[in-house]
Design a protein that fits this description.
Strand 20 and strand 21 form a beta hairpin. With 992 residues, the chain is an alpha+beta fold. The chain is 14% helix and 27% strand. InterPro entries: CBM25, FN3_dom, FN3_sf, GH, GH13_cat_dom, Ig-like_fold.
Amino acid sequence: MSRTPLPRPGRPVAVLAVAAGLFGLLAAPPDAPSPRTVPAAAVAENTATVFYWTKTKNWTAHNLHYAPDGGSWTAVPGVAMEPACTDWVKRTVSLGTAAGLQATFNNGSGTWDNNGGRNYALGTGNITVKDGVVAHSDPCAGTTPTPGAEATVYYSAEALGWSTANIHYQPAGGAWTAVPGVGMQAACAGWWKREIDLGTAASLKAAFNNGNGTWDNNGGSDYTIGTGVSTVRNRVVTANAADPCAATPPDTQAPTAPGGVTATADGVSVLLSWDPATDDRGVTKYQVTRTGGSGGSVVTDVGSTVFSDTNLAERTAYTYTVKAVDAAGNVSAASAPATATTGDRPATPATGRPLGTDPRKDPIYFVLTARFNDGDPSNNRGGSQHVKSGNAANDDPMFRGDFKGLIQKLDYVKGLGFSAIWVTPVVLNRSDYDYHGYHGYDFYKVDPRLESAGASYQDLIDAAHAKGMKIYQDVVYNHSSRWGAKGLFVPTVYGVRDSQWSWYYDEKQPGFEYDGLTVDAKTGKSYYNGDLWSTAEPTGNTCVDWGKPTGGKSAEGYTVYNCQWPSPTSGMFPKALYHQCWIGNWEGEDSRSCWLHEDLADFNTENPAVQNYLIGAYDKYIDMGVDGFRVDTAVHIPRTTWNRRFLPAVQERVAQRHGAEAAKNFFVFGEVAAFVNDKWNRGSVNHSAQFYTWKERKEYDADDTKAALEMYDYEQQQGTGNQPTSTNAFLNGNSYHTPDHSRFSGMNVIDMRMHMNFGDAQNAFSNGKDSDDSYNDATYNVVYVDSHDYGPNKSSERYAGGTDAWAENMSLMWTFRGIPTLYYGSEIEFQKGKKIDCGPGCPLATTGRAYFGDHVAGSVTASDFSQVSSASGAVATTLQQPLVRHVQRLNQIRRAIPALQTGQYSTEGVSGGMAFKRRYTSGSTDSFALVTVSGGASFTGIPNGTYTDAVSGDVRTVTAGTLSVAAPGKGNLRVYVLNGPGRIGTAGPYLK
C-alpha cells in the first residue's frame, strides 16, 4: 500500500464516520442494573381494590396515584391499572394498617382526574369510581375478565454460549421483576422464549442474563420490546417477528433468472458477466451454457458473476445463457441469451503457466519494479512532479526501472538464493506520482512505462519460470486512481481551467488517449490531463457546487475551486461504484467502506459491477501464468466479500486454466495492516491479519453490503476470545500431523506482528509464536523486517539496526515458520535509516525507494540458487557484501532441509531465547531439525539418533533424548538435523 502525499489545489475536509458501540456484555452484581431494585415484601394487612370507569374519558392508559391515610404518595404518575372487564380497569393496593387512601387518576401523559382538585377519599375492599361517584362494589362480578396485553419474547444466546437464560423486565409504568428475572424456556436450537402478561402496558424494558452474573443489557440501554412476538438477536430487536422456531418449510422456490448478461469477445476468448440473481435463501452458484462452434453444448459451474471462456475457435459465434442455482438445487429459468463472435487467435499466444509448487519452499525477493534496474531508458518518465521533487536534478525519473531491467538481473536474484519475486502492481497507473503502481487506472492493461520490445510482462514471467523462479504480482482490489478506472468509470471533469490553472489542466486534444508513456505533441506531456478540465460547467456534472471558489488558496496562491480535487463526499463518483466517505476510525467499520486517501478512490467492492470488473481484470494475469497475488489493502474490504467473491474467483480461474494442483499452490497473501503490538489489532478482530485466513462461521444476508455489516457486528460481538484456533503450525510433541485446511479462506497474510517487532529478533520471535494459534496455518505467513511502506515499530525509515542485527533477523526468518521475504537492497543495507517515502517533497534518490540499478550494474550469471558462476562490475562488489553472503547460505540451508520450509514447530522441551524444533513428514520424507539462533539452547525429549549441524558440520549422537547447544553468537545459528545431510555451504561472516 502506498499513500504518497501529493501537491494539490486544495484538500476537502474529511467527514469522519464513527463506528457503532460494541455489544454490551458485562459481569455485574445482581443489584447492578438500575433501577432494578428488589421490592421489599409487603405486609399483608388492609387492601383496597380500586375499579375505575374508562368509557367516559376513553384514555389509552390508566394510572392510580395514591397515598394510604397517613402515608406517602406514590411517585408520579402512580401505578398502572389493568383491565378488569368491559369499560373497567382495576388495581389492588396494600394499605398496611391504614383504613383508607387518597387517590387520583391519570392517563400517563399529563391528563388527570383528581375529583375537581379535592382528590378521592377511598376506603378498603372493593371500590368503584365512575364519573366522580364513589361506591363500594365489584362491577365485574360474574363477568369474564378482560385479558391484558401479552408479549412473546424470543432471545438468541447463540453467540454467548449460555446454558440458561433469564429475562429481567419492567412493564411500561410498572416495576422491575426481582433480579435475575424470570427463566426463559428453551424453544429451539439457539433460541429461548418467554410469554409475558403486560396488563395495560403497551411495552416493556428488558435485559437478559445467564443467572450467573453475566448480563446483556443492550450496552447499558436495556431493550424496549412491544406486544406480540418479538425476537432479540445480536442486539437487534425485531417487532412483529415470525416465530424463529417454526418449522422451516422445504425450499421449493427457484432463484430469479440472471439479468444483464453481456458477452464480449477478445481474440479467441469471451468475457461473460451478469447481474446477480435473487433467491429467498441465497444463490450458491451459476450454470453457464455455451452453444456454438463444433463442441456442442457445454455447461460450466461458476461461483461468481463473471466467466471468461478461453481457447475458443476463431471467427465463430457463441451464444451463452446463465441459470442460477440455490442450496436446495432449485434452478432458475435461463437468462436472455448473449452472443459474441470471436476474432483471430493472437499471433503470440500467452505461454505462461505457474510453476505450481508449494509456496513455502520459495523465499521472496520484493522489488519496486520502477526503481530496481533500468533496462530500457526509452520508457523512463518523470511525470508532473519531476522538477518539483528534485528528481530532475538527479537525472532520476520516477519511472526508471522496468521489466527489461529485471529480466537482466534475474540471475542476481537467483544468485542470492531467492526463487520467488514479488513485483509491485503492473496495471496502467494514473497519478501525479504513480511509479509504485498503487494508483490503478486501466486494470486490464500493463503499464507501458514498464514494458519494452522483447521485455513485456509476459516475457518477464516466462523468463523467471525458465530459471525456476516464481512471479508474485501485487494486486489492488480496494481502490482505483483518483482519475477513476477505465472500463468501469472515468469522471468527466475535476477542475476549472482558468488562466491560473492552465499549467495543470491541459487543453483537450481529440484522438489522444492517456497511456502514461505516449507524449502529447501539443503539450509535450505524457501525464496529460486533457479530458479532465472544463472552462464551463460540463453537461451532466454531478459534483456539488462545481466551479465555486472554496475561499482557499493553493500553495502557489491560486484560487481553489470546488471539485478541483477528488472527494468521496462531493458527488464526483457514483455511489453504486465508489464509496462516499472518508475513513474516520482505522479500527472501525468505516475503514472497510470509506476512502483512505485523496489519491485512492475507494471501490464499492460489494457492487457486482465492480466485482466483475476486477475479477475479469485479474483473470488476465492468472492466464499469463503468475504464481500468486500479493493483495494490497486487504483489510479495507470485508471478509465476506473476499470469501464470497474474489477468492473463489481466483481459485476457479487458476483451476480452470492451469489445473487443480496449480490452484492449490497459487499463493495469495494479503496486507492486513496493523501497526500495534497486539495479537488482535487494538482488540478488533475485523482488523486483524489472522481473521482473514478463515472462512465465515455462519450464513449472512445474500446481499453483499448487508452481509458485510452483519459479519462485522457478529464477529465484533464474538470478540477476541471466541475466534477459531488451529494447530496447523504446531507439532504434536515431536510428531508432524496432517494440517486441517477445511476452514481456510484462501488468503494467507503478511505477518504484521513480527514485522512490527523486528527492531529486535527476540521480540519478533516471541510475538510471532504468541499469535500462531489464531491463524489458519502460520507456516504460510509472509515474514519481513521492512518494506516499501514501513520499518519495524511503524518506523518511516528503512531498517538501520546494524549489520549484526540484520544477520540475526535473517537467521530467524530463514529457519522459523513462515516464508522469508527481503525488500530489495536490504542485502547491502541499502538506504538504511532513510525515509522510505516522502512523496514529491524530496528526491527519490534520498529515500528508501531510491534507484538500485547502480549496485547491480555489470554482468552476473547464476549456475543455481545461491550459486554465482561469474560476475563483473559493480554487481561483483555487491555480491561480496557480508549480508549477501549470509542470505546466500541461509537460502542454501533452507532449501536443503524440508523441515525449515514446510515443517510445523514446537518449543516444548526447548530452552533458549530463540530456539525451537521443526518437523515435516510426507511419504518417504521425514525431516526433523533443532534450531537455535544466536543463543545457546537445550532440547529434551527428542528422538534418539545422529544429529548433524547444517552450519558447522558438528555431529551429535543422542541416546537419552537430550541435546545441548552452546551459543553460536549473534547472527549465527545451529541447525541440528536428525540423519541430516551434513554441513551445507561454506563458512561466511556469520554462519560458521
